[in-house]
Amino acid sequence: MKRRHFLTGATALAAIGAAGIVLRPSLPPAAALAADRAPLRMPTLIDTTETGRFEVVAQTGQTDFGGGLSAQTIGFNQSYLGPVVRMKKGPLEARVGNTLPIPVSAHWHGLLVPGEHDGGPHLPVEPGGEWVPDMEIDQSPCTAFFHTHIHGRTARDVYAGLAGAIHVTDGLDDERGLPSTYGVDDLTLLLQDRRFTQDGELAYASSMMDIMHGMTGDTMLINGQLDPVAVVPKSIVRLRLINASNARIYSLFCDDGRPMHLVATDGGYLPVPVALETLRLSPGERAEILVDFSDGRAMTLASDGDPNSGMGGMMGRALGMVDRVTGLRQFPVLPFTVDERLEGSIKRLPDNLGGARPDHDPAKVAATRRFSLDMGMGGGRGMGGMGGGMMGGFSINGRPFEMGVINEEVERGATERWIVTTNMLTHPFHIHGVSFQVVSVNGREPGPEDQGWKDTVLVDGETELLVRFDHPASRDTPFMYHCHILEHEDAGMMGQFTVS
Fold first, then answer.
1. Are residues 243 and 283 in contact, defined by beta-carbon separation less than 8 angstroms?
2. Measuring CA to CA, which residue among 414, 449, 428, 92 is closest to residue 266?
3. Residue among 74, 150, 79, 144 nearest 113 (CA)
């Protein structure tokens, strides 16, 4: 059996406790999943906190994923994916080069910078070219994301590897009582599902359903690595989770029932840790959680199936684990084992993270705008905005994206109410250049993962946001708002706005 088929051999039982508590099916023991796996590698860390500058270069290469999988890929500074860039408040010079035969960009997903520095589709770096934005970082500590954002190519090129991670820091995590040793008790995890051909190459979007639902795969990669095991100290460990998948929505949980403590969402820290049994994470969203390994026991971070993929998607079907009550299927994401030789300094949860919940005053709302995330069959633009595409009808408010059309004009410094709706599938909605408050989800209070500062939110029905616009964006370099299922974005579910 090839290692890439590790999902196919597991079996499980669904159980309901005597007290009526629904239990998830038993996943294979973490120790069994971890056997013969290579330790998880962290991305290369570029620390700009002293230099105030960094460089990333888009390049091609051959990536050996292991298990007989070797593929032609692209990445930043390496053959697949890119580094973690650590930055602090103050001036920052970014240098983005391109050695590929296609245009690329570097969208700083989660950074609060002007449109001219945002790296959207109006800021391509042509083959052999370079882009050098002189940015000013002025925002709370957070985990962010960067990826190419060329319209019509975003989905394919992110899938092939053009993405990386960002840490915005203020240097005070030790005072907060948070794990902070990179790669030891502070782990950055880019979650991706991918599909491979029989000869080991990455397979991309071969059917109409791949566009309709977004591209999902049957094989998990963590930081671009197949079948790793995370080796952690006997202490509290911080996991910076980035959903870098094109379309898959994860519902993450610890297979042994231990709690996850949410400490940060997209835009930064919460006031105090919040205990969760399950953490939902849609494409483009980030979350930081604390997991306690002080008991020395192994654990597997697992996920329920993706509701957009139909009964859990390919991984859930391969694994064959079905909850009798919910109908959801589960699959392992990453096993963890404990090595007591590693030093982890944090033994208790912090009492105060120093973060603040959003506090926009609804009475100061300058305008209300409504956005309908629309999709249908035929009659519209295909991938890349070209007529005659496989899928049509991807649009916002009935209008597919056009590079030359400004959809909205916003006043700088204003706070607006944005009401976002969908009546087909669920869609992660991302707004460039802002952090926002999720006010309500289908008329109810948002869940824990939506109560901090956000820039991406999963919309299923109607979601109400309060958004403040502090950074300028011109007609030449506008901000985007779009579905972060990347196939939907490329096919037209995107708009753009100015801030002036």
1. yes
2. 449
3. 144
Which residue is associated with the tokens 């500074």? 77
Q: Are strands 236-243 and 186-194 parallel, antiparallel or unpaired?
A: parallel
The whole-angstrom separation of Cα 249 and Cα 230 is 22
Measured CA to CA, the distance from residue 87 to residue 453 in angstroms comes to 19
pLDDT at 67: 83
User: Nearest CA to 333 among 289, 298, 292, 303?
Assistant: 303
126 to 99, 122, 310, 330, 453: CA distances (angstroms):
9, 12, 39, 42, 34
Closest CA to 445 of 426, 464, 428: 464
Walk along the chain (500 residues) in steps of 10 and give the mean pLDDT of each run.
Answer: 32 30 61 87 98 98 91 98 98 98 98 98 98 97 98 97 98 97 98 95 88 93 96 98 97 96 97 97 98 96 82 43 56 96 93 83 88 74 39 85 98 96 94 96 95 96 97 98 97 97
Please give the backbone phi and psi of residue 271, each rounded to the nearest 5 degrees, phi first: -65, -40
* pLDDT value, residue 32: 82
| Residue listed under structure tokens 């007591």 | 340
Instruction: Provide the 3-class DSSP secondary structure of residue 217.
Output: coil
pLDDT at 362: 72
CA distances from 69 to 99, 169, 200 (A): 24, 36, 4
Q: Which residues pair with 329 in a beta bridge?
A: 322
- For 171, residues 6+ apart whose C-beta sits below 8 A from its C-beta are 49, 88
Q: Kind of pairing, strands 142-147 and 163-169?
A: antiparallel
HSE-CB of 345 using CA atoms within 13 angstroms:
11
CA atoms within 13 A on the CB side of 299: 24
Structure tokens at 47: 């620390």
Measured distance CA(158)–CA(486) in Å, rounded: 9
> Which SS3 state, helix, strand or coil, does residue 199 take?
coil
Pick the closest to residue 335 from 293, 394, 391, 392 (CA basis): 293
Tell me what pLDDT residue 439 has: 95
46, 84 contact by CB (below 8 A): yes
> CA-to-CA distance for 482 and 495, rounded, in angstroms?
6
